[in-house]
Structure formats: structure tokens, C-alpha cells
Design brief:
The protein is an alpha/beta fold. The chain has 2 domains: 2-90, Rossmann fold, CATH 3.40.50.1980; 131-245, 3-Layer(aba) Sandwich (Rossmann fold). Helices cover 40% and strands 17% of the residues. It has helices at 8-16, 32-37, 49-54, 69-79, 92-105, 109-123, 150-157, 201-210, 221-225, 230-233, 235-245, and strands spanning 2-5, 20-24, 59-63, 84-87, 131-138, 143-144, 160-162, 189-193, 215-219. The strands form 2 sheets. Strands 5, 6, 7, 8 and 9 form a 5-stranded mixed beta sheet that branches. A 4-stranded parallel beta sheet has the order 2-1-3-4, with helices on both faces. Helix 4 links the parallel strand 3 and strand 4. The longest helix has 15 residues, at 109-123. It is globular, with a radius of gyration of 19 Å. The N and C termini lie far apart (49 Å).
């Protein structure tokens, strides 16, 4: 089955299942060998619909949050609704269920189930909250991961309460202003991921100087926002971040 993936985390999982991935986005960086060789069809929110159609896929894998709805609809119109799988992953349990569903779609049920079981065993049961943190997703404006997000559920699973689980806005990624100062009353501890905004040492230093009473830690964004096989590779990192948040 010829598959085009518009979701970086699913792309890695599809390659792990040895699916015939014939197209992927420019942000599908794993595995590196496929990133360098598989045709690219634009970005996650800038999909080149015609490029997808030209690849004549049997299945296109998309995600409700990561991809642009109008672009996905255009792909469905061109290839048929049955040729597009739109996933919607907001919890750890939904991630495991979606892995099994994707495996069924491409005829790799056994391999997908094996991955799900290995991840479930490695992650174990949800931990009781031992610390609390805010999770930044963008710098200017300062945006955070709120309720009903995969990021928030990953934090909760690893014993890190999300300081912005409840906000005055229904926005799943609320804006807190131009800096963490606006959210300081809610969060004194902050996780700064490597994506979607690439927080780095230079940001860590400036933020610490601006908010000396707060704590900041650079974290692997993939560990908190990628589902699929990546979940197995980030266990040690998540365990370490959980321990730091509890200090």
C-alpha cells in the first residue's frame, strides 16, 4: 500500500512498520534516511495537494491538529474520503489506540500491536502529581499548552501537573502575553521545548534573567508532542524531566 504521511510522528511510525511511504512533509525528519530520500509534499500546514495526488497514494495520513483542514478536504476531494485517515490524538490512551488503527489500515496489525504493547509497558501507569509546570509552545506571543492537548496528558501521565490545565479561555493553546511574567502567578516552573518554537540556551538565559524567581528547563519537544514509536524512545528523557519538576 502506497502511503503519504502529513504527520511527522506518524511518518516515523509508518517507517518502523516498514510501510511503503511514498511521500511526506518537510518536517518528517525521522528516520533521517527517509528524510533525505522520500519525496516531500510541503509542510504540515502548507501541503502541496497536487504533489500528494501525483504520488497516487492508496492512503494519506493526516491529523486534525497538525494539518490545515481545507488542504485535507482538497486531498479528500481528489482521492476520495476513504483514501484519507484523519487522526485526532489528545491523550496517551488515544495515541495507543490510533497506532493500532493505523496498523489495521495498512495491514500491519501485528507489528502495530507490538509497538503499542511495548510503549504501554515502558510508560507504565500514570504517576501521581509530584510537581507542576507550564509548558510553553511559542515565544512571542507567549503561548502555553492548555487542557485537552496531548502535551498536557503526557505531562499528567509522568506526574507533572499542567499549571494551565484550567484557564479563563477555552483555547487549547492560550496566549499569556509577551513573556512568562503574565503567567508567573500560575507557574513558577516552565518547560521550554525544542519545537514548535525552538527554545535554546540563549532563550533560557534571557528568560531566567527576566524572571529570576521562576525555573526553566529545556526539554525535547518530540517527547511531549510526538506519538507513535517515538514514545518508546523518549522514556528516559520524560523520567528525568519528571524528577526535575518534582524538585
Amino acid at each position: 500500500m502506497r502511503v503519504v504521511s502529513l504527520v511527522p510522528s506518524w511518518t516515523e511510525f509508518l517507517h518502523e512498520l516498514e510501510a511503503e511511504v511514498v511521500g511526506q512533509t518537510k518536517f518528517c525528519v525521522r528516520p533521517e534516511s527517509a528524510f533525505r530520500t522520500v519525496p516531500r509534499v510541503g509542510g504540515t500546514k502548507t501541503v502541496n495537494v497536487q504533489a500528494v495526488v501525483d504520488l497516487q497514494p492508496d492512503l494519506v495520513v493526516a491529523n486534525r491538529e497538525e494539518n490545515d483542514r481545507e488542504q485535507v478536504l482538497r486531498v479528500q476531494e481528489a482521492l476520495g474520503h476513504d483514501a484519507v485517515l484523519v487522526t485526532d490524538v489528545r491523550t496517551v490512551s488515544q495515541a495507543l489506540e490510533a497506532m493500532a488503527e493505523l496498523g489495521t489500515w495498512i495491514g500491519c496489525e501485528a507489528k502495530a500491536s507490538e509497538w503499542s504493547e511495548r510503549i504501554a509497558e515502558a510508560w507504565g501507569d500514570p504517576r501521581p502529581a509530584r510537581g507542576e509546570a507550564g509548558y510553553a509552545v511559542w515565544s512571542s506571543p507567549w503561548m502555553v499548552a492548555g487542557a485537552d492537548t496531548f502535551i498536557s496528558d503526557v505531562m499528567k501521565h509522568w506526574g507533572i501537573a499542567n499549571a494551565f490545565e484550567v484557564t479563563s479561555s477555552n483555547d487549547r493553546y492560550p496566549t499569556m502575553g509577551e513573556s512568562p511574567k503574565q503567567g508567573a502567578r500560575k507557574a513558577r516552573t516552565w518547560l521550554l521545548p525544542s519545537e514548535p518554537f525552538p527554545f535554546a540556551d540563549k532563550h533560557l538565559a534571557s528568560l531566567q534573567a527576566e524572571s529570576p524567581d521562576a525555573r526553566f528547563k529545556l526539554v525535547d519537544g518530540e517527547a511531549f508532542s510526538w506519538y507513535g514509536s517515538r514514545m518508546l524512545h523518549v522514556v528516559d528523557h520524560l523520567r528525568a524531566v519528571s524528577a526535575w519538576a518534582a524538585e
